[in-house]
Amino acid sequence: MDSKKRHLKHIVIVASVIPIVIYFIAGKLLMYRDIPAHKKPPASSAEQHWEDPGPYHVAYPRNYRFIMDDTPTCRTTTPFLILVVPVAPSDVEKRNIIRQAWGNEKLVLGQQVETVFILGLPRGKEARQQQEKLQQENQQHHDLIQNNFLDSYHNLTIKTMVMLEWLAAHCGEASFVMKIDSDVFLHVPNLVKLLLDPSTANQNYITGLVWWHGPVLRNPFIKFYMPRSVIAESEYPPYPLGLAYVMSLDLPGKILGVSPQVKPIYIEDAYLGMCLKRLGISPTDPPERTMFLINPTHPLSSCSLSKVIASTTTGISQMKSYWERVRQGVHC
């Protein structure tokens, strides 16, 4: 009988201790989760321990690395302007059209212009075959810059930040960079003309279609919802919309320098504005808002095309059509 009592006593003690141990371990895990990624101790393996950043943040900084990067841009050349186009791995048709159209403009108003594409790893069942095709494509063009993050819409902020890493590491002697989406028409001469204007600053300069007083959306049923627990303010700091923005090449390093102090959200252009605010730098409106167009009425008139720098399009055929019209000559 005494033996049974002692056995029952041991069971009760163990049962009471287990919840305490679980609570202690869970608390440690939660504390670790809240440590910024750049301050966490390295994992025992080469790859850091993965932790889900949740629906509103992204896993940056992290030990991402470039796995395809043999472009001569900024290594054997010193361009005045670099055009960086974020693309999905599967967007080969868009890349080819850009190479044929505005991405093929190399000397504009006496200034050297170069175009590169930045992308992450392909996903899905055909990822390996897609990666092989990317390597073949790059062997032909030498203009793909690939990093080993998983390429997805949710990871656009990661793509932007590794773009800035690449620029800061290789392009310190260049003057300007434009980040431009693959479905956007670019009037390269108008852009270069703006950048050559004496009134355009060559430091702390970033312009595009600037979004001033952009509201933080609180409706959980709409795109870009952001809860107060992530961003308490009712407005985002001013930022240029992600379709196309241009910056002086002193900014990539400065933005990277403050980024560890600003927890990255998945809305990449808004996050850029948050970093700019931490730097005390405000975007600059272009001389004319018609220089940057989002969702305009298509087709654009000759007058609009003669003034525009960047405009969204309905597809690659329209983008190519606009480029051919500009090349033939447009005016008001």
Automatic annotation (TrEMBL):
InterPro entries, per database record: Glyco_trans_31
GO cellular component labels: Golgi membrane
Pathway in which this enzyme or protein is active: Protein modification; protein glycosylation
Location (main, coarse): Golgi
Keywords: Glycoprotein, Glycosyltransferase, Golgi apparatus, Lipid metabolism, Membrane, Signal-anchor, Transferase, Transmembrane, Transmembrane helix
One function term, GO molecular function aspect: N-acetyl-beta-D-glucosaminide beta-(1,3)-galactosyltransferase activity
Highest rank taxon of the organism: Eukaryota
Keyword Glycoprotein: yes
Location(s) in or outside the cell: Golgi apparatus membrane
Protein topology in the membrane: Single-pass type II membrane protein
Bilayer-spanning residue ranges: 12-32
Gene Ontology biological process terms from the UniProt entry: lipid metabolic process; protein O-linked glycosylation
Protein family: Belongs to the glycosyltransferase 31 family.
Name by which UniProt lists this protein: Hexosyltransferase
Lineage start: Eukaryota, Metazoa, Chordata, Craniata, Vertebrata
